[in-house]
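FYI - complex with iron/sulfur cluster, inputs then prediction.
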Amino acid sequence: MESEVNDIKGVVFDIQRFSTHDGPGIRTTVFLKGCPLACSWCHNPESQSAHYELFFNKKICIDCGSCNKTCPFGNAREILQDSELRKEKCGSCLLCANVCPANAIEKVGKIYTSDEIVSEIEKDLPFYENSNGGITISGGEPLLQYDFTIDILKKVKRKNIHTTIDTSGFASKEKFLEVAPYVDLFLWDIKITDENLHKKYTGAPLNPIIENLKVVDLYGTKTILSLILIPEVNMNDQHYKAIANIYSDLINVQGIRLLPYHEYGNSKNERLGIMNHDSYSEPTDKEMSDACKAIQKINNQIKILQ
Ligand code: SF4
Ligand code: SF4
């Protein structure tokens, strides 16, 4: 039997229990910090940096001035509301967060060991068994913290728990092949199918994402394609046709999830001091339903999942 040499550490920004949207059944979703993409519509902008950082919630600040008094620069409030000042000055010393009486400054990100994650997951074993659920590792991009992710997967798989990875698809082919034996399902994000637009909006090339998808498909792992739909960006027939082509090339794909863009990333951006973030409109229910029909009109064999 393979011995446990290490208890690897990783940075986690959230653990959601009783999740029903991140794979089959009832799941525990572990959100890891760090992403190689920088999508301008990201719902979880606090996932992008691999390090811990601070949320500042101006709405609950009572303006007591304690943070400014303790900050080495004397102006914590100003620093926390300006992403450039944060980069320039803030060393994330947490002194301001420790003295804030209103909890308006919150640390995002916590170090866990893989054993601690497995212990968290085991709390909900009866729910997984009754619902065919399991664990989902999400992010950020789970493979950015590759050693941590594969360590969790190996430990969880030994307990016969279903494993899902929610991935941007952007990591080396070798890493995908190494985790694949421990993954039951990949939720595979495809944001935009035009190569130039993909680079423009996400900062990363599209091609490796599609090539990696084919690699895990050929390996035999199940996938579900996750499409975030944003009216100004990708709700058009050209995108749907490209998605249908990608889908047709896959052997083990289980279906497509259509996910409407939500504006709630905006307030998170502001809490990170990013005030000049991009804004998009949320698709209406009718636009989502039209997108579903448009994809099935191109190929009625495509399974759209709820
Ligand atoms: S984390 Fe430290 S340096 Fe940054 S604003 Fe707070 S007190 Fe100032
Ligand atoms: S310590 Fe907290 S409540 Fe007081 S001014 Fe700073 S952020 Fe606001």
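The longest helix spans residues 285-298. The two ends are 40 Å apart (CA to CA).
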